[in-house]
Amino acid sequence: MANSTQNKQNDNQTSFKExxxxxxxxxxxxxxxxxxxxxNQIIFETGVVLFVVVAFTIIVYLMDIIFKxxxxxxxx
Length: 76
Prior knowledge:
Elements: H1 2-31, H2 39-73
């Protein structure tokens, strides 16, 4: 009984190793198919993202100030 349990554990470990090896071989094969963007495209798109984040931050901040002012006019 102890041998069958040990054999199952060895099979599980071997199966896990084989599936990990297969997975990383697949990752390596797909890695070569990736088309990476140009450096100037990355810089431009990063700038656009930063601009949008800053713009929305300012808009939300201004809305907060406006609503706080409006709510301050209401009687308690």
